[in-house]
Amino acid sequence: MGKDRISVGIIGFGTVGSGTARILLENRDVLSRRSGFDIALKRIADKDIARDRGLKVPDGVLTAKAEDVLNDPGIDIVVELVGGIHPAKDFILGAIRNRKHVVTANKALLATEGNEIFGEAEKKGVAVGFEASVAGGIPIIKVLREGLVANNITAIYGIINGTSNYILTKMTEEKVEFSEALSEAQRLGYAEADPTFDVEGVDSAHKLTILSSLAYGIPLSFNEVYKEGITNITPRDIEFAAELGYKVKLLAIAKEAGGEIEMRVHPTMIPGEYLISKVDGVFNAIYVEGDAVGSTLYYGRGAGDMPTGSAVVADIMDIGRSIFSGGAVRPVGFPVVGANRRIRKIEDVESMYYFRFSAMDQPGVLSRIAGILGGNNISIASVIQKGRRIGGSVPLVVLTHRAKEKDVLRSVREIDNLPVVSDKTMFIRVEAKEE
Amino acid sequence: MGKDRISVGIIGFGTVGSGTARILLENRDVLSRRSGFDIALKRIADKDIARDRGLKVPDGVLTAKAEDVLNDPGIDIVVELVGGIHPAKDFILGAIRNRKHVVTANKALLATEGNEIFGEAEKKGVAVGFEASVAGGIPIIKVLREGLVANNITAIYGIINGTSNYILTKMTEEKVEFSEALSEAQRLGYAEADPTFDVEGVDSAHKLTILSSLAYGIPLSFNEVYKEGITNITPRDIEFAAELGYKVKLLAIAKEAGGEIEMRVHPTMIPGEYLISKVDGVFNAIYVEGDAVGSTLYYGRGAGDMPTGSAVVADIMDIGRSIFSGGAVRPVGFPVVGANRRIRKIEDVESMYYFRFSAMDQPGVLSRIAGILGGNNISIASVIQKGRRIGGSVPLVVLTHRAKEKDVLRSVREIDNLPVVSDKTMFIRVEAKEE
């Protein structure tokens, strides 16, 4: 047997740091009764140790120097909750160098620098826990890596950015423009002053990078994820989607198709009867399909001090259990079992599509548009044309059967050049079982 | 480090046995690349080894004798998939006696005899994996025990019997009687010839026993679970529920309330906007609320060869990892950390209630019923009274605020004795945040 007291040091006493500290202090008793070992919160480092976090921290725990955590020989697990790339990466590499296990919630860092970090951890034989890096309190990392380990994962569809989901929900329920929903999200603290990472799909892409690596055994490949945000979505599109029986969600999608892996983040229309389309507000949900288990879904809060702290502490307990049981720690990296699998370029992705064309109110427009689509191997599934004028033109809405993205892009270029088309064409990818 | 080949023997080559064997054989390669060790399916024992399961099993694996699995010194993990109490219990105890780890999907056995089984396993230092015993492929055991380990669990609401959920869904969508929906379920293979365990809540209670023990650290206490099935639910009640904005589901509920634990299985009305109320057909879902993580939900197939096999193989991989890493296996039993917590009797449970009274079409009936409810501390939240006659009487539907079950039972006795009430009162507990 190993030790029966595990000592933890936290670097970063912000939102998630406070939640983690609160759980370790307030639930210490139940944690130790469940595990058989004790978790001691030994140090918390933060540049600002004066601010009141509404939490009673024992004397001598707080320090302004990260080194007090990194170089303390008594600390077994270093929890990095600083966020961002630097100095977070240096803290993590420093901890690994000192042969300490690491727990982090830092998806941006792992998605972009994770291959190096996991490589270093492997060399030193320490664990890097990252449950909190995706979907807050939902234990999706554990689910993918252990719960569904028996499965070849066929598809992942995730609502993994609460800010975007809140904005789309508000646009749907109150028929307001993106900008108004964003302001409200900012007012409520759901969106940052610079919302780029959230609304442009970057945050979702960080998380998708991590999920895809786990699911498909590929190296972390953030740069190969296709990213498209929600800033161009209008309440008109959401309404048309509803008329067709669909909801609009910012989905992070990973799929295996023809031996290749698709990784893409973009606004997506999904049938209103799918469970994941009913996930509203700041909540997250991840739909995972495996060859044995079939359809599964995991739902919960994707952010916040306590939900994310719940995931951080789960990692601490897992690593603690390895130390306590005296066994080797779980291999920390992503077992690269499918390294030779190609990432599919977005141009080669196949999907169904929603188009909203801004057509002049003239005869023959539909036939010209349909002609271009047909000429590019895109076949129409349904059409909505109504008298509603938007800025001098009439919206013409078309839903297609499966088509190739490159054919869609070519069609849109041709159509947008038609004199009878007055504005840029809007298109949204549609994910649904084709009838 | 321990061994790098783990040998498995399966007893019971039925539905789940076939699914498990199929995954071990067909996904062997990916399993070993993910884990670093190899899982060999060494023996499969079944009384009937002649029947074709549509699966190519290597020569020498099949045997008609369970002893060939139990007594094979080369087998590390025995998978019991026979079901029922005997001889399944003897197989499991035999395996433990021979210091083999055990994996089982047998909820009935664990719920009723689990304390003994886990006690024996603890003595011998072997693991008993039971992920497959609750909710098929959904890794809810792992989620509760590891993913949410940081949390005090405040509530669990589970749709964990696919048969009942299929029947209620069909009654809701097609407005048919219970008996008709049951026949259809039987025709489709979703219900057994004797459906008692499923439709009377026994199967859900078995599973709830296991979930409650994990969540609250109490011994397995099947006999203290309140059980009520769905056989009395009528399409009228489902329709009234819909008018009030509710769905009717067979829920397995575990809650902590005032230091006591509630464990109950019964038809339940839940608001139509709750995500769990949208879980239809044979699917399962478990809503888990923790003090740190807040609301979470887990959804998937609760039965079937491959989904359940997915959970069995996840357990095999977990135990294999312990053997491979050379560490102590995870403590197998339920850490009994709350053994002194009292199970609340159903009479003491508080809930909101739906009543359907069969009132004679006479003036003053509502006031007499309301008088009895008020006299028993039950306050009315809303009333539906319509002209629809059912068998000579008019249904009077009442929704209450929170009330004690014992007051409800007393009221119903008094009301059913009224001369103006022509038939037994129907009531359904309502779970919702009270406004």
Give the mean pLDDT of chain A. Answer: 94
Strand content of chain A: 25-35%
CATH topology of the largest domain in chain A: Dihydrodipicolinate Reductase, domain 2
Under CATH at level 1, the class of the largest domain in chain A stands as Alpha Beta
Radius of gyration of chain A (Å)? 24 Å
Number of helices of chain A: 14
Percent of residues in helices of chain A comes to 25-40%
Overview of this protein structure:
2 copies of one chain form a homodimer. Chain A has 435 residues and is α/β, with parallel strands linked by helices. The first copy, chain A, folds into 3 domains: 5-135 and 305-325, NAD(P)-binding Rossmann-like Domain (Rossmann fold, 3-Layer(aba) Sandwich); 140-301, Dihydrodipicolinate Reductase, domain 2; 350-430, ACT domain (Alpha-Beta Plaits). Chain A has 14 helices and 17 strands. Chain A has helices spanning 15-26, 28-35, 67-70, 88-97, 107-124, 140-147, 162-174, 178-187, 196-199, 202-216, 235-243, 305-325, 365-375, 405-416; strands at residues 5-11, 38-45, 62-63, 77-80, 101-104, 128-129, 153-159, 226-227, 246-257, 260-271, 283-290, 294-301, 350-359, 380-385, 394-400, 403-404, 421-430. In chain A, the strands form 2 sheets. In chain A, strands 7, 8, 9, 10, 11, 12, 13, 14, 15, 16 and 17 form an 11-stranded mixed sheet that branches. In chain A, strands 3-2-1-4-5-6 form a 6-stranded parallel sheet, sandwiched between helices. In chain A, helix 4 runs parallel beside helix 5. Chains A and B meet through helix 2, helix 6, strand 12 and helix 12 of A and helix 2, helix 6, strand 12 and helix 12 of B.
